[in-house]
């Protein structure tokens, strides 16, 4: 569980963006990274608003600073699963499994309460779905201003 929770810091998101760049193109990868930034900012805004402390006991090999609610790792994982679901075909279940495992790992290593993970999952799904809805408008804007 510890490697999974550590991978969620930055590495896994950049790796997914690199694969998207290779297989879906530059605009899709840039949009995905923009969506991750929006999710991260929204979650950190909520953390600042609610200011729930992290669990004091049970931390295993991982330390986390700042507030607990909601889980940003979980929000990013569920936002990714939601956004990539339509384009990942039969392997979309792997993104959902990864998102669920990310949430479980955050509880297991002792840096989040279950409510933090549930709220992060909900936020990620909502923002990932919003990303899906706004993607066509993004493509139209990019294509309108593209200079080849």
Can you describe what's shown?
This protein is mostly helical and 148 residues long. It has one domain (2-145). Helices cover 72% and strands 0% of the residues. It contains six helices and no strands. It has helices at 2-7, 11-24, 26-50, 72-84, 92-108, 114-145. Helix 2 (11-24) runs antiparallel to helix 3. The longest helix has 32 residues, at 114-145. The mean pLDDT is 85.
Q: Which structural traits does this protein have?
A:
148 residues, globular, 72% helix, membrane, mainly alpha
Outline:
By secondary structure, the chain is an all-alpha fold. The protein has 6 helices and no strands.
Based on secondary structure, the structural category is: mainly alpha
The end-to-end distance, rounded to whole angstroms, is 46 Å
User: In what range is the share of β-strand residues?
Assistant: under 5%
Shape: globular
How would you spell out the order of helices and strands? HHHHHH
Largest pleated sheet? none
Our Rg estimate from Cα atoms comes to 16 Å
- Uncertain segments of ≥5 residues (pLDDT<50)? none
Helix percentage range: over 70%
Number of E-state strands: 0
Tally of contiguous helical segments:
6
The pLDDT mean sits at 85
* Overall tally of domains: 1
Keywords: Membrane, Transmembrane, Transmembrane helix
Transmembrane segments: 6-23, 30-52, 64-84, 93-111, 117-138
Protein name: Phosphatidic acid phosphatase type 2/haloperoxidase domain-containing protein
Pfam families: PAP2
Describe the secondary structure blueprint for this structure:
Layout: H1 2-7, H2 11-24, H3 26-50, H4 72-84, H5 92-108, H6 114-145
Helix pairs in contact: 2-3, 3-4, 3-6, 4-5, 4-6, 5-6
